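Priority: medium. Attachment 1 of 2:
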């Protein structure tokens, strides 16, 4: 589930649309 969020964040980052997912990905990476 977290991996999917990170992947979705990547796509959103390319589209420059969702900063929330980007933060979620950063938090997930910090937990890892």
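Attachment 2 of 2:
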């Amino acid at each position: 589930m977290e991996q999917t969020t990170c992947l979705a964040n990547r796509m959103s980052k390319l589209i420059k649309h969702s900063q929330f997912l980007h933060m979620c990905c950063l938090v997930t990476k910090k937990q890892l």
